[in-house]
Amino acid sequence: MKIVVFDDDPTGSQSVYGCPLLLKWDEETLSQAIRNKSPLLFLLANTRALSANKAELRIKEIAQAFKSISKKQNLNFEDILFVSRGDSTLRGHGVLEPKILSEELGPFDATFHVPAFFEGGRTTVDGEHLLNGCPVHLTTFARDKVFGYSTSFLPEWLEEKSSGAISAKNVLQVNRNQLNAALLDDKEMDQLLYFLQGLSNNVSVVVDAEEPDQMRIFTDAVIKLMGKKRFLFRSAASLISSFANLPKNSYSPSDLASLRIRDKFSGTRKSGLIIVGSHVQLADEQLQFLLKNSDCKGIELPVEKIASLFEKSSANNSLKSLEEKYYLEVKNILESGRTPVLFTSRKEINFSSISKRMVFGMELADFMAAVSSKLLPDLGYVISKGGITTQTLLEKGFKLEMVELKGQILPGLSIVCPYTEDENKRIPTITFPGNLGDKTTLLNAWRLLEKRN
Predict the structure, then answer these.
(1) 55 with 97: CB under 8 angstroms?
(2) Exposed/middle/buried for 104, CB within 10 Å: 0-12, 13-18, 19+?
(3) Where are the domains of the chain?
(4) What CA–CA distance (Å, rounded) separates 390 from 259?
(5) pLDDT score, position 318
């Protein structure tokens, strides 16, 4: 069994380890990744950074590339579970992406929507999605200016996000009572299997998940039906780890922290860089808490000024000068023995349209990646907060085609390294979601890598 995940940013592998994450999907890279012994393959589509039209084209492109290489390697789609991984707080193209995957890789008997992510406090109870017990439509995530929503009840959320193409009354549910019963009784498990086997015509199904055992019994049932039914999934990270059922990672958090690169001549550990691009409220709180530590020095990127430069057709030289300015500031902090924290100004800019907002988001991520790329020889590690920021850093800043997921240094915080034999280029990068943890989590991740109490 192979689990192929179309991930809308590089944080969706936050509960597994030991697998490739692809930033490119050319034939050579795909062929190499498919041959990897891991049951997991993540294709980092970065669609949360894109408009709906561009996201559709991106998913089609990747799916068609995967189909092409699958034919050449005689892969049987009945042995593959396809997952569209999205944000556990319901942001992203949560209806569009599975729709395109169904068209390209189907037909499927059902699409299951399973946004629970236990490590982040996200659960689904009686069809309602919760964050630490609070309906997610009452949180700041529901007010996202690109992907906002008005309901936490997933059948109604599907209707809202599909503009009525999916009717809430036609959405089926796998509820917690079914799952709890199947956990305790073989006959109830047979009933769950009977229900799943009766699904057809790519019906939309919402799955409850309050705790890992409920997720486990659901994935056990799905696996029992492989070869008989074809299912598609839109989920957060917990479903993926339940399908993979990996043994405990042999890398401890301390082992992962030890991946920090040392100077090849002196043997001393190189300094790190922290990047914060995410603009959710939790990211603001984590940044403020981190910068109270005197060993971390902040450098604020003026978002309004950078936006005005990108609007000018003759701005290239000015942008290059600005890149050089911030590169030198970061380098000076590194040389002083402190940890530089490169962050975007926290005030959000109003744009005339969502598409312009998204385009600038990518331009800003490109700018941060360009500054960071110049520092690569000097760095021992990177902590990158925000999915779009991290994807752009790995793909465009560090010019990587594929990275290896080593494991989680803290719950939900993965460390990835490039596939290379050159130890000095295997820079460990923490992929830090914008919406994960509490105000102390960013500081705690930095302390682990610095081996400080």
Answers:
(1) yes
(2) middle
(3) 2-244, 253-450
(4) 18
(5) 83
- Integer Cα distance of 434 and 282 in angstroms: 7
Inter-residue contact 28 to 65 (CB < 8 Å): no
d(CA 65, CA 105): 11
Stretch among 179-183, 219-223, 393-397, 424-428 having the lowest mean pLDDT: 424-428
> Which residues have CB under 8 Å from 385's CB, separation 6+?
274, 275, 276, 277, 278, 283, 286, 287, 432, 433, 434, 442
Alpha carbons 164 and 395: distance in angstroms, whole number: 36
- Once rounded to an integer, what is the mean pLDDT over residues 189-201? 98
Interacting residues of 352 by C-beta distance below 8 A, sequence separation 6+ = none
CB 259 within 8 A of CB 404: no
CATH of domain 2-244: 3.40.50.10840
State pLDDT tens for residues 12-41. 888 999 999 999 999 999 999 999 999 999
Q: What is the pTM of this model?
A: 0.93
CATH number of 253-450: 3.40.980.20
Crossing angle for the helix pair 237-244 and 212-224, to the nearest 10 degrees: 60
Whole-angstrom distance, CA of residue 82 vs CA of residue 439: 34
Cβ atoms of 6 and 61 closer than 8 Å: no
